[in-house]
Amino acid sequence: MNDAHCHFFSTPFFAALGRQLKGVEAPPVTRTITFTEGVTVKDLADKLDLRVKDVLARLLMKRLVLTINSTLDAESATTIAHEFGAEVRLRSLGENPTDVDVLAAADERAPQETALGRLGWDAPGTAEALSDRWVTELDRAGVARAVMIASVPGDAGSVAAAVARHPRRLVGFFMVDPTRPDAATQTAAALDAGGVRGVCLFPAMHRFAIHDDSVRRLFDVAAARPGTIMFVHCGVLTVGVRKKLGLPSPFDIRYGNPLDLHAMAAAYPTVPVIVPHFGAGLLREALMVADLCPNVRLDTSSSNGWIKYDAGLTLSAVFRQALSVVGADRLLFGSDSSFFPRGWVKEVFEQQSSALDEIGAAPEVREKVFGGNFDRLFPLAG
Q1: Which of 244, 257, 306 minimizes the C-alpha distance to 286?
Q2: Half-sphere exposure of 330 (CA within 13 A, CB side)
Q3: Is residue 174 a contact partner of residue 149, using CB atoms and an 8 Å limit?
Q4: E-strand spans in the chain?
């Protein structure tokens, strides 16, 4: 069994939520620096291209009275780097490079004020640590491979690091906001760097039209890199973690109509497109687009709570209709699993398996939905 829809809730993801809780905007990241543990104030200043006294002044604001040759712990160094607009890659002596989240360091010191503190969920740690935990969880659940989605723009590096650690188990997707002026450039750079192959778009979240030129530029990027997947969320959009934290969700689901995807998908027939959650309340429209565009696939992920909007509709009926229109070759099982300690959501699999049983799906149909289609879309090298 494979899972085409899991979220990689990394440290940067929770840091972004923590900043929203505090009403603090993150400074723009303008560069990436690398250093080893125990970096001195002078070395950090040099890497940031700053005067030593500016770094010392910022440390003093944090009640850290140090000198030019004082060494800094990783947390303090990454916090300072972040405040000056730098992302950090920390290399421990004798170890492989490890991503350190420069956006979350300050939040981590006051857990009662952070998203994690309020949620009571487990801290993800480094991308490598989180990937290890996911693989252990997948082993426990009997899941061979899974897509991991970086669930905040700019976090492709976390998923890339996870895939680099477990390339035969994890497939990397990352969220992109096309309204950002450098979206196409950054998307191309992330794909070319390796470790990620799926570009995730959330039109309702970022308020853009699927047929906009900014989206077309991303499809151009994908088309120039065979094997790249475009993931386009349509229909109703709710983010459970935002509800739990009491954060507003200023989404606009008018932008999430699958019909707006038709012209784009048709114009790029070699680019595979995934519409999650059966279209999330717009099943009819999603099926229309998939019927017209052979490159469009549907994922079955989550509890599919959108069914409540259609009186009398059942998950079994959804599967029956999707199989009738799209066929078994273009349905991908997904669980929409995301955080720990909950881990992989077995109940979603059980519900979908029961739905397929109820409609008498043949064994070969189940094999395709729960695994075979995934392996064909994401073949392993070698």
Answers
A1: 257
A2: 24
A3: yes
A4: 2-8, 31-36, 86-91, 97-100, 145-150, 170-175, 198-201, 229-232, 273-275, 296-299, 331-332
Helix (H, G, I), strand (E, B) or coil at 156: helix
Q: Which of 297, 370, 378, 380 is nearest to 141 (CA)?
A: 370
**Is residue 95 scored above 50 in pLDDT?**
no
pLDDT at 29: 65
pLDDT above 70: percentage of residues in the chain: 91
Q: Which of 16-30, 206-220, 326-340 has the lowest mean pLDDT?
A: 16-30
**pTM for the predicted model, two decimal places:** 0.79
Sorted by where each starts, the structural domains of the chain and their CATH numbers stand as 2-18+119-377 (3.20.20.140), 29-102 (1.10.10)
Among residues 195, 171, 220, the alpha carbon closest in space to that of 3 is found at 171
Nearest to 148 by CA among 165, 295, 140: 165
Element (H, E) at 163: helix 156-165
Q: What's 71's DSSP letter?
A: B
Q: What are phi and psi of 87, to 5 degrees?
A: -90, 150
Map tokens 């503190």 to a residue. Answer: 117
d(C-alpha 117, C-alpha 3), whole Å: 29
Q: Are 313 and 350 in contact (CB under 8 A)?
A: no
Q: Which residues contact 99 (CB under 8 A, 6 or more apart)?
A: 89, 90, 126, 127, 128, 157, 158, 161
Q: What is the average per-residue pLDDT within 292-308?
A: 96
Check pLDDT > 80 for residue 132: yes
Cα–Cα distance for residue pair 316/357, rounded to 1 Å = 9
**Bridge partner list, 7:** 149
The runs of H, that is alpha helices, within 251-313 are 262-267, 283-292
Tokens of 139: 């082993």
Q: How far is CA 33 from the centre of its chain?
A: 23
Given a cut of 50, is residue 269 above it in pLDDT?
yes
Q: How many residues does the chain have?
A: 382
